[in-house]
Amino acid sequence: MFDFLEGYDVLGAFWTTVQLTVLSGVGSLVWGILLAGMRVSPVPLMRGFGTAYVNIVRNIPLTIIILFTSLGLADIFGVTMGAEDFKIQGFRLAVLGLIAYTAAFVCEAIRSGINTVPLGQAEAARAIGLSFSQTLRLIVLPQAFRAVIGPLANVLIALTKNTTVAAAIGVAEAATLMKSMIENEAQTLAIGTVFALGFVVLTLPTGLLLGWLGKRLAVKR
Amino acid sequence: MKLRKVTAASAVVLALAVSVTACGGDKKDDASGGKKIKIGIKFDQPGLGLKQPDGSFSGFDVDVATYVAKQLGYQPNQIEWVETKSADRENALQRGDVKFIAATYSITDERKQKVDFAGPYLLAHQDLLVKKGSNITKGTDLNSKKLCSVTGSTSAQNVQKTIAPKANLRPLSGYSECVAGLQSGAVDALTTDDSILAGFAAQDKYKGQFQLVGLKLSNENYGIGVKKGDSTTVDKINKALEKMVADKSWDKAVKDNFGPARYKNEPAPKIGDIVK
User: Locate the Solute-binding protein family 3/N-terminal domain: which residues (chain B) (predicted)?
Assistant: First the structure.
């Protein structure tokens, strides 16, 4: 029944999907936190940049961003991410594009978390002489994070699925292999089902684990 | 009372659904009687199947399909063109969305298990498109070159497996992106079937810039896909194709669509004669 899987490295393709997800996930978390910090900072210029970035980037389709990294950044501006080989270059460019896009959503999730922290917390922190960055780092963000584990899990699941867009620039992840298999085997439904299940296997545990964690760590107010 | 309403409502919905599908079925029967015929082609391949900005269609596949439809009793204005992308072709035939498909559809054993093929009507080969004056002359030259193809396509897989495993292969989502890269110098060569390459090279905006290397890296027997088991249609199409070759319409279609690229086409293949 599953003889059409023979000769294909399905697990290897999904491993690339996992690598894309993890690297982009970590990167977009870091960049997203920085963006969220900018959006709530007292400096108008940084606030303006953060707002502009989020509103522009999250409204551009991911396919266009990913294609731009390859056809625009690499071909026209010569940004090859230190790789001559198209396979490595494509992977790195895809991670870059996914980070740029996902960070906008991470930023908004974190900012919503910051809004759940009562104003008194920040005022108290300022009253004992903490600077803005200290207030954010020590008082506000730790509380904000515990409130937004659920929404961040959604962003992570969306990111896992969005990695399939990297197929557009030839990254050898799951969707790319699926295209090859459909081309050779002419079994759209069976192959599609296998890959759909693969993504459920990847994302379902993520959702369950982070959902449970979010409930445990939430700050009861 | 409430339950009764729901039951009544669902009965109405069900009845409607049944009658609507019944209508749909009737229409389909009409189509074979002489009203409209649905034919699957590609919309994005210059020289083979291309949708023009004004909504008309051009290309070799389109010409062949038009000729075949005429032999089946449909005038060109009775044809409804349907886009069948590579991944949809088998399903479109199985569902009966289209009567037949002429869309660079290579006859392979795997596909024969799902659909029936008439033809072949054209023998194409995997080839390379390079800039004029390029020093790429054989397949192994690619090992140190940058090569572009479409993600998952047979041609891309061939290069990786047999022709030049060390080639720096860049799979993109469409051939148009590859041609743009070839023009800008981002890649050294583009690989797929020579008929498709010739179609691109013959486009007005690229005329005279590219050349085909002429390597014959594989044999692609383009057939006309028909729903599995529909042998009457297969026979009719085969007859039409034979006639098309006999009255020279076939040669004219090749010349019209690939001429400007100086594409050295194979002679018209014999029906059922598949070159491995």
Answer: 36-261
Write the DSSP assignment of B208-256 as a string of letters.
TTEEE-----S-EEEEEEEETT-HHHHHHHHHHHHHHHHTTHHHHHHHH
* Number of domains, chain A: 1
- Percent of chain A at pLDDT exceeding 90: 75
Is residue B10 situated within a structural domain? Answer: no
In the β-sheet with B44-45, what is the strand arrangement from edge to edge?
A: B44-45, B49-51, B57-58
Task: Note down the domain range covering A182.
Answer: 9-217
pLDDT tens-place string over residues A175-186: 989 988 888 887
Identify whether A142 is preceded by a cis peptide bond (ω within 30 of 0): no
Can you tell me which residue has the tokens 């490595």?
A88
Beta pairing class for B146-150 and B168-172: parallel
Closest residue by Cα to residue B121 from B270, B231, B246: B270
State how many domains chain B has.
Answer: 2
What range does the domain containing B228 cover?
37-123+221-261
CATH number of residue B146's parent domain:
3.40.190.10
Does A4 map to a domain? Answer: no
Looking at the domain assignment, is residue B273 inside a domain? no
ipTM greater than cut 0.85: no
Cβ-defined contact of A179 to B151 (cutoff 8 Å): yes
Across the interface, do A75 and B172 touch by the CB < 8 Å criterion?
Answer: no
Express each pLDDT in B240-275 by its tens digit. Answer: 999 999 999 999 998 888 876 667 778 888 888 888
B95 alpha-carbon distance from chain centroid: 18
- Stronger pLDDT, B140 or A28, i.e. the higher one: A28
Instruction: Say what the pTM is.
Output: 0.79
Residues of A in contact with B177 (CB under 8 A): 67, 71
- Return the residue in B90, B170, B182 with the most chain A beta carbons within 10 A, the one to mutate for interface testing: B170
